[in-house]
Structure formats: structure tokens, C-alpha cells
């Protein structure tokens, strides 16, 4: 049995990270917990996020809440931001003050 060389194969599903990291305001960070597991973002995944983008309700954001970075769904309720986890083991956060670091654009997973 012989294996075809890459030159013989049609490379249709190639990925260029240039498309995702094209802007200076795009960054990557390693996920440290399972708070967003039901959204398909797991511990040790890498997320690509864009800084400076204004989040809208339903976006997954990285936010600084009292010096702690967390990744959650962003919602506005009664004119206040609320952060929802995608794992029932974590609580909903209604911070007095928060800074949105960035909006999640993509997830990379290594097997």
C-alpha cells in the first residue's frame, strides 16, 4: 500500500491564521477553566479574541471583574452588564464594575 504525497492530494481544507490574526488588536489566550464548556470552549483550548470591540448581548467576552479575568456570555439587563457562564457549576456575575478585555472570535483545540 502506498500513501499519496501532499502534492498528489487536493488541499481544500487548509487554514491560514493570517485571516484570524490580521488585525493588531487580535490576541490569543489559553483557557484555564471549564466555565464555558457548554458553549464548546474547554480547558486548554486557545481562544482568539479582538480587543477594543464593543460587545453586544450574546457575545462571549473576556472581562476583567475586580482584577480577575473571566470568559462569559455578555448580556445587558436593566441597563447593567451581566456575565453568564456556560456551565451550571459557575454562578452568574452581575459586577458593579467591569472592563471588557475583548470579544471571542474563534476557538482552537489541540488533541
| Shape by Cα distribution | globular
Count of strand segments: 6
Give the CATH H-level superfamily. Umud Fragment, subunit A
Task: Could you tell me the CATH topology label.
Answer: Umud Fragment, subunit A
Number of domains: 1
Number of helices: 0
Could you name the ranges where pLDDT drops below 50 across 5 or more consecutive residues?
none
Write out the strand line-up for the largest beta sheet, numbering strands in chain order. Answer: 1-2-6-3-4-5
Q: What percentage of residues falls in helices of 4 or more residues?
A: under 10%
Q: What would CATH call the architecture?
A: Ribbon
Name the CATH class: Mainly Beta
Beta-strand percentage? 35-45%
Radius of gyration: 18 Å
**Cα distance spanning the termini:** 27 Å
The major pleated sheet works out as:
6 strands, antiparallel
Structural class from helices and strands? mainly beta
Helix/strand order, N-terminal first: EEEEEE
Please, what is the average pLDDT? 87
In short:
This protein has strands at residues 26-30, 46-51, 60-65, 68-77, 80-84, 99-108.
Amino acid at each position: 500500500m502506498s500513501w499519496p504525497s501532499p502534492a498528489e492530494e487536493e488541499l481544500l481544507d487548509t487554514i491560514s491564521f493570517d485571516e484570524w490574526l490580521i488585525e493588531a488588536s487580535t490576541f490569543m489566550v489559553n483557557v484555564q477553566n471549564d466555565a464555558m464548556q457548554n458553549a464548546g470552549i474547554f480547558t486548554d483550548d486557545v481562544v482568539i479574541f479582538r480587543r477594543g470591540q464593543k460587545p453586544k448581548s450574546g457575545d462571549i467576552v473576556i472581562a476583567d471583574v475586580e482584577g480577575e479575568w473571566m470568559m462569559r456570555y455578555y448580556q445587558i439587563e436593566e441597563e447593567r452588564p451581566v456575565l453568564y457562564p456556560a456551565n451550571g457549576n459557575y454562578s452568574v456575575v452581575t459586577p458593579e464594575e467591569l472592563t471588557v478585555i475583548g470579544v471571542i472570535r474563534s476557538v482552537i483545540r489541540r488533541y
